[in-house]
Amino acid sequence: MNLDIIKKLKRTELFCDIEEKDIEKYFTGIKYEIKKYSQDENIAFRGDEVKGLYINLEGKAATEMLKESGEVKRIEEIESFSLLATAFIFGDKNRFPVDLNATTPTSVFYIEKNELIQLLKKDDRLLKKFLDGISCKAQFLSNHLWNNFTNKTIGEKFSQYILENQKNGFFQMKISVKDLAEYFDVSRPSLSRVIKNFLEENILEKIEKGRYKIIDMDRLRAQ
């Protein structure tokens, strides 16, 4: 395994606590592949079998779902150094639940399921990180369902989203208003009006495109 791959793996949540020399040692005898995809190329289709662990080493990807109307709904943006579909590697229905597409030229590190098991056995920290990642993903999906299927107002949904993603009083929108509206299952104009109201009521202050400062944390929490 070359040093460039080791350094990129080190930046993932799975290997971040492992020394580079140990990463190299743990992969001794473990088979893996590097798969490269062009922009807009499909990485996996909904229903494809998840045969192992996929790690996005470089580039960006997105999970998408085709609606009955023919419209494509983007579910999640996937940055470099992210683990993909970890909750679907094992179990009876281990298939991709949505389409996975490269949005930029992308390199994916792939390790087959049985090889992954052998790798996780080599260090308890790897096993714990892997299981923690699955749990966090399950919690994220649970929150997503709660947000979409309860009688929360758009303002309540947006406030919760800000509070969950803010850092030191600042909030960065990592996806477009259109994609966030789809995430909330509301119309884009309705969400835009809520954002405008938050600015006019001095709950938020716009710093630059997509970046906001929280002015009134108490009122934000009270939404």
From TrEMBL:
Gene3D superfamilies: Jelly Rolls
Ranges of residues in domain Cyclic nucleotide-binding: 14-137
InterPro entries xrefs: cNMP-bd_dom (IPR000595), cNMP-bd_dom_sf (IPR018490), HTH_CRP (IPR012318), RmlC-like_jellyroll (IPR014710), WH_DNA-bd_sf (IPR036390)
Molecular function terms, GO-annotated: DNA binding
Annotated coiled-coil segments of the chain: none
Keywords: DNA-binding, Transcription, Transcription regulation
One BP term from GO: regulation of DNA-templated transcription
Keyword Transcription: yes
Name of the protein this chain belongs to: Cyclic nucleotide-binding domain-containing protein
Organism: Fusobacterium ulcerans 12-1B
